[in-house]
Amino acid sequence: MALRSALLMLLLALALPATASLRQAPEPELRDLLQRTVAEADSFQDRFDAEVWLLDMSTRLTRYMPDASERLTLLRLVHREASKAGLKPDMVLALIHAESHFDRFAISSVGAQGLMQVMPFWKAELGRPQDNLTDNATNLRYGCTILSYYLKRENGDIQRALARYNGSLGKTRYPAKVIGFWQDFWYVKP
């Protein structure tokens, strides 16, 4: 346990801005926030894995979402919903990056809403007109479920599944964009 705490402290120190000294302890507020977030992260098999993944992704997401609390809450939701749907959370982050640039209030020219740009007709299809697609948890549940369905329908072919998700089956531009974000920015090596 002491080794894990020491490793977490080292990771937190490395995540601090370049101007901060590595000898300084991480900000207590960030450490406490991360510990609470890890405790609430119910989709991880191991607490240490949760700490490492949340810290790594939080550091990457900082430029798009400056508020640490908001970032960690979103990351916990992404991990939970992606895991429930059988998706890789880092791939879902890449899709969000491509779709909305992490703007939960994004609305496309065709009316798709939220982080994963879910079309509102799905609410009527499901008999749930009260659902709010700009609510991150709701949007992630819809989006991850839809993407998971298309991935199964396409027998694991991520390019075709992404094209179906985007409504651009037969075209490669959108899948290449998402896969590019995934490989260049969000991918986590096993």
UniProtKB/TrEMBL annotation:
Family matches, as Gene3D superfamilies: 1.10.530.10
Which InterPro entries does the record cross-reference, listed alphabetically?
Lysozyme-like_dom_sf, Transglycosylase_SLT_dom_1
First and last residue of the signal peptide: 1-20
CDD domains named among the record's database cross-references: LT-like
Lineage, top-rank taxon, reads Bacteria
Boundaries of every Transglycosylase SLT domain copy? 78-173
- Pfam families the UniProt entry points to: SLT
Keyword set, alphabetical order: Signal
Is Signal included in the keywords of this UniProt record? yes
Keyword Signal in record: yes
* Protein family: Belongs to the transglycosylase Slt family.
Name of this protein: Lytic transglycosylase domain-containing protein
The scientific name of the source species is: Stutzerimonas nitrititolerans
